[in-house]
Amino acid sequence: MQLERFNYDNRIVRDFGVATIIWGLVGMSIGLLVACQLIWPEMNFLTQYTTFGRVRPVHTNAVIFAFVGNGIFMGVYYSLQRVLKARMFSDVLSKVHFWGWQLVIVASAITLPLGLTSSHEYAEMEWPIDIAIAVIWVVFGINMFGTIIKRRERHMYVAVWFYIATFVTVAVLHIVNSIQLPVSMWKSFYVYAGVQDALVQWWYGHNAVAFFLTTPYLGMMYYFLPKMANRPVYSYKLSILHFWSLIFIYIWAGPHHLLYTSLPSWVQSLGVVFSIMLIAPSWGGMINGLLTLRGAWDKVRTEPMLKFMVVALTSYGMATFEGPMLSLKQVNAIAHFTDWIVAHVHVGALGWNGFMTFAILYYLIPRVYKTTLYSKKLANVHFWIGTLGILFYAIPMYWAAVVQGLMWKEFTPEGVLKYPNFLATTLEIIPMHMMRAVGGALYLSGAIIMTYNLVKTIKQGRLLADEAAEAPALLPLITIEHAPHRRLERKPVLFMVLALIAILIGGIVEMIPTFTVSSNVPTIASVKPYTALELQGRDLYLREGCVNCHSQTVRPFRSETSRYGEYSKAGEFVYDRPFLWGSKRTGPDLHRVGGKYPHKWHFDHLLDPTITSPGSIMPAYPWLIDQQLDNTLLQAKMRAMRTLGVPYSTQEIDQALVDLEQQAAAISKDLAANQVEVRPDREIVAMIAYLQRLGTDIKAVAKEEATANANQ
Amino acid sequence: MFKQITNLHGDEIYLITSLWIFLVFFILVACMLVWMKKEHVHYMSDIPFDDAEEKNEEPLKRN
């Protein structure tokens, strides 16, 4: 049999590895900053570009797409070449992929603090960046499939299946979630509205966790863990069952993020059922990983990278048990909108993604530099300080969640809310937030120690950019393979198509009826489109990232209707592009805030929240008073909305600026009557107009009904 | 507790259909596993170790 000589491309692995470390430090540092802002809001340095609402998406996108994203590409480019016995398909495509991805990250890091956001959680970037992401992702896909096609190993190892599923599903998720109608270079509207937008967003959001933070890492686990332990995977058959069940089930679970909202109840129930079923394949993967270490546990004592892997797998097991539990309606009723979700996410992010990335870095860097790790002792210090960091992060957050969740729901014996002032519940958990920041600082310290250790390792070695390898050429198949999966393992395109079908079924069953059956989103006659000024105010609400702390959906619980008012209905959101239900209540829900306070209250609150709410941790927004409202895109925005089905008349669009000025003048006049002098063309006037509109359309119905009843 | 999946006002069809789809899918995957030969399972699990860089390291141990 003729042996072919070729080289593995280690340079691209090194490049992605270095990017992983740099962006990891950046993302974690920003995370620490936002954690501190939840204790000391003045840590936004009193500029609009660093407030919590604008910086929190920078943190989430930096750790997900910059740190973990580069970590995925590092692991994939290393393992893919080796299990396929082939160099990457194209060095040029590898470079385009690397630099294109970094460009996307830098563009996001610039635009998000500027307030240029689509407001879809974990997909906040505006449409030009969305297109760039899609292009770079396709480049990655071509490079990956090109390598698979020119491989010298007939069958694709399990790691490759996970990479294929990741590629195809992330592409589908990203495209469907990013369908927008551009208004300008940095402004667009989603084609979906309200309930439908919420379903698409959480179908995407949940499966971004599944197919960006989970499946590629499972693929890497199946390659790197056996290599680190020098043992084959515990059960290859289990990996097959694990793979197909996981990708099939995961896609259905998104609606568990929307329990008790106005999403049709059958969709919520489907989300719950499939979330519970998800425990089985998730734990199948974890067990397969941990049992791979059977007979090698002695190595865990001496090899820091195996320690990281064990904690990563344990965190995966914890998070994938906790997720289904949180999707039970009874649990969700208490835990949703609290810090429990933050803890849950971070057990996965810090434990599963972070620790496995560290383990792979400790494995890879010495190998591509043909040296040994500079200091095992420092790696052990990193392990323990990182583990402590996770504990200091998660435990206080669970504690805070229980405290705040129960305080929200507590009634006095007389039947009124015991803590009617939301702020009282926020202030109660400040000490837990301080401990969380300590946990984050510990975790970041560990990453800094790792960086020092790896830099020293790099300095003592020399990059083996082209690693020599040899393997027999792949000859034509002369025997017939009867086992169906065996045949599938050598047909990458068919494999991709079947994976695509498996992931499409869930989305189709949940989305098509929600989009096409009108009874799923009943309309309400009194709900009207936003006025020109309110529309402008809504865009300011998006720009400032208010949705990061304030939800806009009142759930049908006595504790919520007593605190906020009537529960939210699907028909109230039909003109909301994007929906702004939120996922966390650092501050109170705002769906019924319209008309609750006078204009002056909102003015004072935005000028300095402690004027109206002493002790508030909300940042001040004085620039809203100074900055003039930019109306240049107003009519284009209204026209775009009309294209999407919002019933703005031609007259309303033509008259938009006049109407806007009239409404602004009325608010300004009311403020003046309350000793507040502010010009009607300032941004704060639009923001007040929007806040005063929230949730008022059905209040109008209630008033009309009351009047009619009185007249009878 | 189970009211949330039994009382769906006529929309149970979505839930039942979905579970049937999964069951059929799961049975198909299980059949593929049953038909898989042990030698192929070993061959596939050893792929990461069929690698030049491992030649000088300790021999592979199987569980």
* Total strands of chain B: 0
Q: Note the beta-strand portion of chain A.
A: under 5%
* Name of the level-1 CATH class of the largest domain in chain A: Mainly Alpha
User: Could you give the count of β-strands of chain A?
Assistant: 4
Rg of chain B: 22 Å
Please work out how many helical segments of chain A DSSP would assign: 29
The global form of chain B is elongated
Poorly predicted runs of 5 or more residues of chain A: none
Structural class of chain B: mainly alpha
Radius of gyration of chain A: 27 Å
Describe this structure in words.
Chain B: Keywords: Membrane, Transmembrane, Transmembrane helix. Chain B: It comes from Sphingobacterium griseoflavum. Chain B: This is CcoQ/FixQ family Cbb3-type cytochrome c oxidase assembly chaperone. The complex is a heterodimer of chains A (712) and B (63). Chain A is mainly alpha-helical and 712 residues long. Chain A folds into two domains: 474 residues, Up-down Bundle (Cytochrome C Oxidase, Chain A), CATH 1.20.210.10; 180 residues, Cytochrome c-like domain (Cytochrome Bc1 Complex, Chain D, domain 2, Orthogonal Bundle), CATH 1.10.760.10. In chain A, the strands form two sheets. A two-stranded antiparallel ribbon of chain A has the order 1-4. Chain A is built from 29 helices and four strands. The longest helix of chain A is centred in the middle third of the chain and has 34 residues. Chain B has one domain. Chain B has three helices and no strands. The mean pLDDT of chain B is 74. Chains A and B meet through helix 2, helix 7, helix 8, helix 9 and strand 4 of A and helix 2 and helix 3 of B.
